[in-house]
Amino acid sequence: MKNPAQYALCLDVGGSHVTAAPIDLSHRTLLNPGRVRAPVHHVDAAETILQTWWSALSMASLACENKSFSHITLALPAPFDYQHGISRMTHKYRQLFGLDVRALLQTQQQFSPLAGLPIFFANDADLFALGEHWAGMGQPFERMIGVTLGTGLGSGFVREGKIIRSGPEVPPEGELWNTPHLDGLAERHACGQAVSDSYGLLTGESCSAEEISLRADQGDLQARSAFQTLGEHLVAILTPHVQAFEAQAVVVGGNVSRAWKHFGPALQEGLPGAEVFPSQLREDAALLGGAALLSPAGVLS
Question: What InterPro entries does its record include (predicted)?
């Protein structure tokens, strides 16, 4: 009888770098000696981009010599045809637009020790949420929402270990960024730039969310007010979806979540029906979510 797979191999794709790592399926942990971070230029030729991705995966797999892998997952931003492996991105990785990324990776895969492993693709925010549910703050809860705050607003809805992207309980594709809020879309009011805009209105200064967080740490009242405003907007954006999904928990990640103490209390107070937490897995959450993408029965979530 064949021994069950011990690890999954996952790649988180960003605009300037990729991170690959093996995930221990039994312990639900990332194997740090196998973590590979590689720079990538999203304007490069398709062949160069995919070679960088595959090289990172291959190098990460070397940390698990003589160990078996269950699957490979790539965490990618939208728009992307995750089921068929076709890129629809135009804002970055334009040279991949319309290409069958799975087939191109399989061309390299067939000559490697990873030959034959199934390759899956999933939305990076969905995998953040799934990773938090599988190995992070969301573990005790059947229903949770993951939110990422960075250059944009990402979201993922997880019910009993499955990513939910359709149905009356969730917004289309499980995405909050383009839901209506005030005079526009939710993302305009809930991301790093939103914090900068709020601070700019109060002070006339142009600062990054990171700088504003530092100023809030130092007692800058306008900086603290900008983050308070972020928390209030998040409450308004999330409330109808927490109620519709009957979410028991909300876990917030992304770079802006590092300023949790400045907006987290407003979010916790405004969502009394759910437990609210900052991510502790941070950038590892999507990688762990990639490992969790297969249920114990081997069915894609």
Answer: ATPase_NBD (IPR043129), ROK (IPR000600)
